[in-house]
Design a protein that fits this description.
Helices cover about 45% and strands about 10% of the residues. The chain is of the alpha+beta class. It has five domains: about 5-95, Zinc finger, CHC2-typedomain (DNA Primase, Chain A), CATH 3.90.580.10; about 110-185 and about 195-235, DNA primase DNAg catalytic core, N-terminal domain (Alpha-Beta Complex), CATH 3.90.980; about 250-370, Dna Topoisomerase Vi A Subunit, Chain: A, domain 2 (3-Layer(aba) Sandwich); about 380-430, Up-down Bundle (Pheromone ER-1), CATH 1.20.50; about 455-585, Orthogonal Bundle (DNAb Helicase, Chain A), CATH 1.10.860. The strands form four sheets. It has a five-stranded antiparallel beta sheet with strand order 1-2-3-4-5. The two termini are about 45 Å apart.
Length: about 600
């Protein structure tokens, strides 16, 4: 278990945490029979296929196959590392994470960082109201067209001028956390010793950046005059990663019960000004190009992403970079479009000239990905010549290869076939695909789909769903010699559960995290058991073990009979064993 956190602690954590509470804090759940359901946060769907089981402490999506424990959910949804997810769950329970002996890498005190960022956000908001220069900031925001309600929704504040404002306000005890949170800069001392620390943000309008849970994870600061840089962002920290986070996503989710699309714009003021005019679904990347992680996060929220760019050459080049990053994550049920603004305009200025309806009409007329893709590539070649068709194919081939297989990719290939005057089948052959990748071969009845699970698989599955059954296993020594696939895992499960009878299914899955056996156990945990309850499960489990014991006896009988017929025969002990096994076999008839 990561080599530093004791296994017993992970067991305790899995016993105390409630996955329903964890998932519900990110994805609103509703009761659906014994379990809780929602639309899956890991792919787009209209009908809920995402289930969370309080009994199993396990989530599973029947649509995309996503599954796991509370730790796994945080790792998949929030892109946390294993240790970070453990710390997050422990902090929610108010317990400390112990560390075993050996060399230990110091983990960032993320809770301290969250706390100091929250305090800093409150401090900046107070300065906007109380500082003697706060009024000039308010006047500036009003001049830009903002009102107090929107400023409050987005938590705008003011970092006062001066090199040392934040430390006295929050207290010297926060010094290291202020540095870890990126609120202070430490200048190395020239002659050794401690360096000088000073405020990173000075005389700037402050935009708090929140994660999907609403926690402040960083800041953006804008100068009021002509100083540079115009915008200054928090540096990368233990809680802030520019390549993942989107400014305004939390506020968009909070403002709109159901998001159908997200509009990606360039800056903080674009997001806020659009919100001021009633367009509450705009987000901005934080000084970086749109990454695949940004896109995966957005497509977990909405089926459609619209990119907004300037209409000049630089804007179209930026749009093409965005398209290149979209291709690996686009697919069935996901749509990307591109919106280009008039020269010299940005969303902030344009929405103030036009009303909301006209601006949203522009969004509705945004160019589909497929159109932008082929128009941009066609513009690079001479489409009046055969050489142009060949060149278009050469340009498109590596980009189509990056797309996930599915109907959308097939349509893109068909569109390319039209433009290059080839048949779709010829183009598929040219791309190295002789059949449609989206079509799956259906096995005929009786070809193996309906095969009954083995006794070992049945026993392991029941243990994952009902770990307490291990106490009903009885003597399993005879099973150690039974040669069956999975028998080693079954015996390990029984031994672990008999030593630690309090373990639940989630703890078992975490015990084998990252292993081939763990992957197998996750698949079994995702299965639905057609049983009336734990009493029927116990009967099935005991019956499976009894049959395996019978198989083990028969296997041993065969070995002894073969040895008896061979030269040398049986020893006295083996003769007694053979007699005992015959007696047991007769007793079971």
């Amino acid at each position: 278990m990561a080599g530093r956190i004791p296994e017993q602690f992970i067991d305790e954590l899995m016993a105390r945490v409630d996955i329903v509470d964890i998932v519900d804090s990110y994805v609103p759940l509703r009761k659906g029979g014994r379990d809780y359901i929602a639309c899956c946060p890991f792919h787009n769907e209209k009908t809920p296929s995402f289930t969370v089981s309080r009994d199993k402490q396990f989530f599973h999506c029947f649509g995309c196959g996503a599954h796991g424990t509370a730790i796994g959910f945080l790792m998949d949804y929030e892109h946390m590392e294993f240790v970070e997810a453990v710390h997050e769950l422990a902090s929610r329970l108010g317990i400390d994470v112990p560390v075993t002996g050996g060399v230990s890498v110091k983990q960032p005190h993320t809770q301290d960082i969250y706390q100091v960022l929250d305090q800093a956000a409150k401090f900046y908001r107070r300065q906007l109201k109380e500082h003697d220069q706060g009024q000039k900031v308010i006047d500036y925001l009003r001049q830009r067209g903002l009102n107090g309600d929107v400023a409050a929704d987005y938590g705008l504040g003011f970092a006062p001028p001066g090199w040392d404002s934040i430390t006295p306000a929050l207290g010297a005890a926060y010094g290291q956390s202020l540095l870890d949170a990126g609120l202070l800069i430490e200048k190395p001392a020239s002659g050794g010793g401690a360096g000088r620390r000073y405020d990173r943000f000075r005389d700037r309008v402050m935009f708090p950046i929140r994660d999907t849970r609403g926690r402040v994870i960083g800041f953006g600061g804008r100068v009021l005059g002509d100083d540079t840089p115009k915008y200054l962002n928090s540096p990368e920290t233990a809680v802030f990663h520019k390549g993942r986070e989107l400014y305004g996503l939390y506020e968009a989710r909070k403002a709109m019960r159901k998001l159908d699309r997200l509009l990606v714009v360039e800056g903080y003021m674009d997001v806020i000004m659009l919100a001021r005019h009633g367009i509450r679904y705009a987000v901005a990347t934080l000084g970086t190009a749109t990454t695949t992680e940004h896109l995966e996060r957005m497509f977990r929220q909405v089926p459609e992403v619209v990119f907004c760019f300037d209409g000049d050459r630089a804007g179209r080049e930026a749009a093409w970079r965005a398209l290149e990053n979209v291709l690996p994550v686009i697919g069935d049920g996901r749509q990307a479009r591109f919106m280009f603004l008039p020269d010299g305009e940005d969303p902030d200025s344009l929405v103030q000239q036009e009303n909301r309806d006209l601006f949203e009409q522009r969004i509705g007329n945004a160019v589909p990905l497929s159109t932008f893709f082929f128009d941009a590539l066609s513009g690079r070649v001479d489409m009046q010549s055969i050489d142009g068709y060949v060149r278009l194919l050469e340009l498109a081939r590596p980009m189509l290869a990056r797309m996930p297989r599915g109907v959308f990719r097939q349509e893109m290939i068909a569109r390319l076939a039209e433009r290059t005057r080839m048949s779709t089948q010829e183009l598929l052959t040219e791309l190295g695909e002789t059949t449609s990748p989206a079509r799956k071969r259906v096995k005929p009845p009786g070809s193996g789909n309906n095969r009954q699970p083995s006794l070992v698989r049945t026993a392991v599955t029941l243990l994952i769903h009902y770990p307490a059954l291990a106490q009903q296993a009885g003597d399993v020594d005879v099973l150690h010699d039974l040669d069956r696939p999975g028998m080693g895992l079954l015996l390990k499960l029984l031994e672990l559960l008999q030593q630690r009878p309090h373990l639940n299914g989630a703890a078992l899955l975490e015990h084998w995290r990252g292993s081939e056996e763990g992957h197998y156990l996750h698949k079994l945990a995702a299965q639905e058991l057609l049983l009336a309850g734990e009493s029927e499960a116990e009967r099935e489990f005991v019956a499976a073990l009894d049959r395996m014991r019978g198989q083990a006896r028969n296997q041993r009988l065969e070995v002894l009979h073969n040895k008896s017929a061979a030269a040398g025969g049986l020893t006295d002990d083996e003769k007694n064993e053979l007699k005992q096994l015959h007696s047991e076999s007769l007793g079971n008839i």
